[in-house]
User: Which sequence fits this backbone?
């Protein structure tokens, strides 16, 4: 099923849920409104056969695409040695909001996995509904993303830190988390 | 001593989706009771396969509540990837799951290749397939050895590690190191197979099936082994899928889900092998699945040796691939390319990609986001151990403490991968 067909199917089942879709390099990607996420996921699981949640990946886009990250080739190809060519500036699309949470879904059975990615865009502090009720495996996936990225999954039954110590300050995978120079942890234990 | 009546462990009904505890399935709260003791199990305990801490509430000898605590070997791999060029990232990937290291490298390298659209020569695909399977044998041998030593079968541990050494010798021969080899690189593999590798590998393929027979002779019919493993940690296919289990843990329930077959990559479409499935989804079936998978892996290795085409093992795109060493002495362009690739790395077009491979533990996926620069914007790994350890609580509750050890062992979790 192509991204457009899937988006149409989801739109007709859950009106006003899908705000965008793209083909993607690897799998169709649907952009969904956060408040409709659980409905969309339930539809995908029950009607589209996406019974398997592979991964929940949160991405912090703070500063993404603000600078030209580099030059990755010319318009005609990747020949940077062509005379006078500096290649095309690599300017990725600016993200609509700071955080993206991406759910990688698959069909587990005898056939092909037919993977689909569902993404929601979030501002800092904005909550996203938990999908533990749809796929119980989301339990630790969401706790991990809460712990490392600071995404709050509303309705998660046990949203505590999973990987970092429970009194840790900050969320390490955020782009504004300092690297080097941070206070020495565990000094209270000495 | 407790006087609470509990159903005997052996007649516990199968674990069905309806019995997935509401709320957080990875944590089961104990029922209110007076004679309950909460015991801290771990983080360092010989049978936890690493540093896993289980907070167990017991009633006599029966587990009634369990909460798993992970993160003791969290090393911030994903944050590190964001600070390193893609080229340096390959070094980090194998250390995530230190037993199935090759699959991890492969997932990362494959994800980058997919983002770039880099073509990998056919021979390199076959070499990668070969080492994926050798690596699977290596990982399963460590699983079998350690789970046997937990049950007191010391000799099986020694036998398994003896064969594991043979596998590592093969790795050393081709890649120069025994583990964490950095052998698959963007565009192919680092070097072609060395002289004498075919003979050694064939010798291994002749020897290995007999050795697997030996393990099965020692364990499969063994009443002690069977009584400890049969019916422990049973899960139904539906519940296993809902809980995200993959690899041998899922196949033991009878679901023939194997990425090598359903989502073919590398040279797997051209290889003839069987997907080993179990029936009951208990610890015994998981053991049988893994052990019998080694036969299939040997078959795949043999076919790789037979069918591998000759040709280059590295792509020729000099914007991504290091030039051959010999050229550096004669070609200025090669020297410049080499310098640029090593110092600032190459740039990857903006985009996102999820690239799964079938690691020894299940679906190991690498999710990459690129902003067009020389470093990944975000790297995230779907670690099968991380996912499968979630069912520890569901499988262990209402069982004896000793069975909990079997459950953790039979799920084959690698804590380095669970914590990353």
Assistant:
């Amino acid at each position: 099923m192509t991204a457009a067909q899937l988006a149409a199917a989801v739109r007709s089942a859950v009106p006003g849920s899908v705000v965008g879709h793209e083909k993607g390099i690897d799998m169709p990607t649907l952009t969904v409104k956060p408040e409709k996420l659980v409905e969309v996921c339930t539809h995908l699981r029950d009607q589209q056969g996406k019974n398997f949640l592979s991964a929940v990946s949160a991405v912090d886009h703070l500063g993404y695409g603000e600078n030209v990250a580099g030059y990755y080739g010319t318009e005609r190809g990747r020949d940077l040695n062509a005379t006078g060519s500096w290649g095309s500036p690599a300017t990725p699309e600016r993200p609509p909001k700071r955080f993206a949470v991406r759910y990688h879904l698959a069909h587990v059975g005898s056939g092909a996995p037919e993977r689909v990615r569902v993404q929601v865009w979030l501002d800092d502090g904005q909550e996203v509904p938990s999908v533990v009720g749809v796929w119980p495996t989301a339990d630790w996936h969401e706790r991990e993303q809460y712990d490392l990225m600071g995404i709050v999954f509303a309705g998660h039954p046990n949203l505590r830190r999973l990987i970092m110590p429970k009194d840790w300050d900050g969320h390490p995978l955020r782009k504004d988390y300092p690297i080097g120079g941070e206070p020495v942890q565990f000094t209270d234990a000495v | 001593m407790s006087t609470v009546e509990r159903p005997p462990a052996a007649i516990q009904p199968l674990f069905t989706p309806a019995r997935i505890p509401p709320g957080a399935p990875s944590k089961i709260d104990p029922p209110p009771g007076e004679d309950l003791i909460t015991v801290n199990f771990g983080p360092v305990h010989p049978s936890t396969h690493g540093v896993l801490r289980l907070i167990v509430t017991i009633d006599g000898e029966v587990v009634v509540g369990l909460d798993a605590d992970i993160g003791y070997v969290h090393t911030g791999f994903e944050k590190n990837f964001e600070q390193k060029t893609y080229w340096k990232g390959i070094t980090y990937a194998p250390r995530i799951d230190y037993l199935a290291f090759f699959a991890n490298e492969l997932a990362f390298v494959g994800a980058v290749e997919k983002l770039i659209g880099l073509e990998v020569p056919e021979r390199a695909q076959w070499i990668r397939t070969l080492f994926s399977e050798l690596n699977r044998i290596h990982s399963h041998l460590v699983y079998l050895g350690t789970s046997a030593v937990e049950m007191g079968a010391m000799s099986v541990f020694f036998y398994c590690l003896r064969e594991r050494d043979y596998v590592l010798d093969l790795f050393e021969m081709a890649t120069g190191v025994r583990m964490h080899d950095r052998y698959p690189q963007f565009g192919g593999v680092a070097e072609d197979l060395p002289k004498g590798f075919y003979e050694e590998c064939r010798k291994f393929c002749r020897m290995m099936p007999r050795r697997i027979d030996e393990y099965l002779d020692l364990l499969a019919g063994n009443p002690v082994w069977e009584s400890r493993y049969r019916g422990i940690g049973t899960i139904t296919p539906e519940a296993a899928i809902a809980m995200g289990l993959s690899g041998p843990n899922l196949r033991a329930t009878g679901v023939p889900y194997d990425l090598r077959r359903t989502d073919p990559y590398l040279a797997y479409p051209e290889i003839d092998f069987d997907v080993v499935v179990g029936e009951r989804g208990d610890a015994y079936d998981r053991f049988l699945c893994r052990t019998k998978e080694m036969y299939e892996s040997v078959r795949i290795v043999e076919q790789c040796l037979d069918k591998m085409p000759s040709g280059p093992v590295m792509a020729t795109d000099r914007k991504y691939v290091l030039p051959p060493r010999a050229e550096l002495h004669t070609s200025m362009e090669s020297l410049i390319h080499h310098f640029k690739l090593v110092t600032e790395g190459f740039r990857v077009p903006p985009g996102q990609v999820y690239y799964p491979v079938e690691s020894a533990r299940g679906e190991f996926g690498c999710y990459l986001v690129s902003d067009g620069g020389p470093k990944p914007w975000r790297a995230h790994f779907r670690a099968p151990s991380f996912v499968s350890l979630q069912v520890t609580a569901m499988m262990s509750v209402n069982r004896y403490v000793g069975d909990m050890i079997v459950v953790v062992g039979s799920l084959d979790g690698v804590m380095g991968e669970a914590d990353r």
